[in-house]
Amino acid sequence: MTGFAPRTDLLSWGRTPRLPMQVAHPAFRDQLDGLIRAGAAGNHGLLAVGKLRSYGDSCLNGDGSAIEMAGLERFISFDRRTGVLEAEAGVTLAEILRVAIPAGYFLPVTPGTKFVTLGGAIANDVHGKNHHRAGTFGRWVRQFSLARTDGSQQVVGRDDASGLFAATIGGLGLTGVITRVTLELMPIASSRIDLQTIPFGRLSEFFSLAAESEASHDYTVAWIDCLAQGDKLGRGIFTRARPSSDGELRVSNKSGPSVPIDAPGFLLNRLTLSAFNEAYYRIAGRPRQASVSYDPFFYPLDAIGGWNRLYGRRGFYQYQSVVPPAVAEAATTEMLRTIASAGQGSFLAVLKTFGDVPSPGLLSFPMQGTTLALDFANRGRSTLSLLDKLDAIVREAGGRLYPAKDGRLPPAMFRAGYPALNQFTPHMDPGMSSTFWRRMQL
């Protein structure tokens, strides 16, 4: 196909699927029409991809075609009076922050990495530490331009009555190629964050802190020791924060070390992870109040280039679930007991509550409840067996998993967790596909 070349080195962030694709790298929007037609006509159709920060196979189109959108990274307009920005879909959140912060604006919703594209943030309807206040990323999107494989170009806004806006927000890139986006930014007085950390010894304390903090703080999140057992089960460190009311408007340009090679597979084991978690709880868990730059608060792992290599060449699975409020404590307790008993887990396990702000997308992941996210080094059958056990807990609780983080979600669980699936499928572009979607159709 003209404009496409075979690639075998494109991996999702979890690095578990290793799939060949035909990949194109456009630099200008006027190159897209021909590439979209050619890609859609090939085997397994077409998928637009960004920085490949999804963890599983939702950002891959194995044995099919992909258009890498990172070259379409131009700003089109920015109204400094209103904070409304228009940009091409390949612009990253990091690039938006470089423009927005000096003008007194910030992203209204941001995930745990700034190295994702606008198109990717919409396709996965990403969320952040302020879901109880701001909801998901898609709530702040005014409109986007969508190129379909039938050659049509559509500008789709919030007032869209057809359902295409709701299908595209969180739609995993399956409704067409997002080419440009109009986004509302949030005004800020400072690029600093006022935060407070509070250690807690059991899971019930987390839920009390979350309920108390959501009314008074914009951002809430907790690190949890996923390997603690017995009377330490559910211990962690709760962080609540607000934007600083005064201070500098400074873009962080710090860059830390990179992981140059894949770490040995034996490096992350129960002994090393337990030792890390114990030390982290004792050192980082000291109560404190501080004013910090936005960067280490929102994007701690961005400071380590290629940190996914720490899990070794076999990669890892990230498992992120959400369960409803009525059963959240019981289900989360059962998940933590199961993980601790298996001796598998991560040094960065994140626990937080989602509020009742409705997500605009038909397939958006967040719903009111509690979300737990952990990384598991890929140890083959033993890891998959553990994840199956967690699936059973989440499904029994009436919860669901996050497709952007998934690498092995069973199709039946996907269908059960996303009741609007039947409303979504009529809006799919028949020329678009992904490895994840084909897996869900089995």
UniProtKB/TrEMBL annotation:
The enzyme's first-digit EC class, named in words, is: oxidoreductase
Q: Where is the signal peptide?
A: none
InterPro entries, per database record: FAD-bd_PCMH (IPR016166), FAD-bd_PCMH-like_sf (IPR036318), FAD-bd_PCMH_sub2 (IPR016169), FAD_lactone_oxidase-like (IPR010031), Oxid_FAD_bind_N (IPR006094)
Q: Which GO terms fall under molecular function for this chain's record?
A: FAD binding; L-gulonolactone oxidase activity
One Pfam family, please name it. Answer: FAD_binding_4
Q: Which UniProt keywords apply?
A: FAD, Flavoprotein, Oxidoreductase
Name of the molecule in the record: L-gulonolactone oxidase
Domain FAD-binding PCMH-type stretches = 16-188
Q: What does the organism's lineage look like at the top?
A: Bacteria, Pseudomonadati, Pseudomonadota, Alphaproteobacteria, Hyphomicrobiales
